[in-house]
Design a protein that fits this description.
Elements (H helix, E strand, L loop, with lengths): L4 E3 L5 E3 L9 H4 L3 H30 L4 H27 L5 H9 L5 H25 L15 H23 L6 H15 L8 H7 L13 H22 L19 H6 L4 H4 L1
Antiparallel strand pairs: 1-2
Length: 279
C-alpha cells in the first residue's frame, strides 16, 4: 500500500492525502488574541502619529494662523481615524481607546483576557506613535509637553466628547450600521475638534501619548489626571444611556467598533452580563 492510502472495510483502496507537515490554522496563523493586540497596538500608534504629526505639520505650514492649524489637524485626524479603523478593525474591532474597550467589556463584547491584552497594546502603541511622530519631524524622540490644558470648561468638554463617542459607537452597532462606524467616528472626532473647547481628546491613550510631544497637540503631564477622570466619567454616563436606550445591545457588542474576529466565542459568551441569561 502506497503512502497516503488506507484500506476501506470493503477492501477497496481510498486515497486521502496526508496533511502537509506544519499545515493547519495553528501552524500558519498567530494566536487570535495576539493578532488583536497587534492590531490595537498598530492602530493606536497610527492614530497618535496622525494627531501629533499633523499638528506639527500644521504649525510649520500655517505658522501665523491658529485656526487654520486646528482645521488642518482636525481634518487629518478624522481622515486618518477612518483609515485606521478600516485597516485594523477587522482584526480587533478598532477600539484604539481604553474607554471604548472598557465600555465594550461592560456589555460583554470582549472578555477579560481581551481587555488585559488591548489596554497595554493601546498605551504602548500610543507612546511609540508619539516618538515616531517627533522623530519624523526631526525633533527629539521625547519632548515632554508644557502645554497646560486645565479649567472647568475643558474638563466638561472632555466628559461630553467621550460621552458622545461611546453613545455613537454602540448606537451604530445596535442599529445594524457598524459598516458606517469608521466614517461616523472619524466625522464625529473631526467635528468635536471644533465644538469642544478641549479639541476632544476623548481617549486616555491619547492623553498619555500627547504628553511626549511639546508641539501643537501636546498636553502637560499635570493636566492629564483630570482629563482621564472626566473621560471615564463621560464614558460611564455614555454606557448608562446606551443601556437604557438599547437594552439588548449586549447581543451585538462583540461587533464594536466594527465586526471582527473574536478570541474565543465561548470565552466571550461566558463573560457576558448575567442579565443576558435572565431575559
Amino acid at each position: 500500500m502506497s503512502h497516503g492510502e488506507h484500506v476501506r472495510t470493503d477492501g477497496a483502496r481510498a486515497r486521502h492525502p496526508l496533511p502537509a507537515r506544519g499545515s493547519g490554522d495553528a501552524a500558519v496563523r498567530p494566536n487570535p488574541l495576539a493578532r488583536q493586540a497587534l492590531a490595537e497596538f498598530l492602530g493606536s500608534a497610527g492614530l497618535v502619529i496622525v494627531v501629533i504629526g499633523s499638528g506639527i505639520a500644521a504649525q510649520r505650514l500655517s505658522p501665523n494662523d491658529v485656526g487654520l492649524q486646528l482645521l488642518e489637524n482636525a481634518l487629518a485626524t478624522g481622515a486618518g481615524l477612518v483609515a485606521l479603523i478600516l485597516a485594523f478593525g477587522p482584526a480587533s474591532g478598532g477600539h484604539f481607546n481604553p474607554v471604548v474597550t472598557l465600555a465594550d467589556r461592560f456589555f460583554g463584547g470582549v472578555s477579560n483576557r481581551q481587555v488585559a491584552a488591548y489596554l497595554p497594546a493601546q498605551l504602548i502603541g500610543g507612546a511609540v506613535g508619539a516618538i515616531a511622530a517627533n522623530v519624523m519631524f526631526d525633533l527629539p524622540a521625547v519632548t515632554v509637553s508644557t502645554t497646560d490644558r486645565s479649567g472647568g470648561g475643558l474638563w466638561l468638554s472632555e466628559a461630553l466628547a467621550t460621552f458622545g463617542l461611546v453613545v455613537l459607537i454602540f448606537a451604530l452597532v445596535r442599529g445594524g450600521r457598524a459598516a458606517l462606524a469608521p466614517f461616523a467616528v472619524g466625522s464625529y472626532i473631526t467635528a468635536a475638534y471644533w465644538w469642544s473647547s478641549s479639541t476632544s481628546f476623548a481617549n486616555p491613550m491619547i492623553d498619555l501619548a500627547r504628553t511626549l510631544s511639546d508641539t501643537f497637540a501636546g498636553i502637560a503631564p499635570a493636566s492629564v489626571p483630570v482629563f482621564l477622570l472626566m473621560q471615564l466619567v463621560g464614558g460611564a454616563v455614555g454606557v448608562t444611556v446606551v443601556a437604557v436606550l438599547y437594552p439588548t445591545v449586549a447581543d451585538v457588542a462583540a461587533a464594536v467598533v466594527v465586526p471582527h474576529d473574536t478570541t474565543d466565542p465561548a470565552d466571550v459568551e461566558a463573560d457576558r452580563p448575567t442579565q443576558r441569561e435572565n431575559r
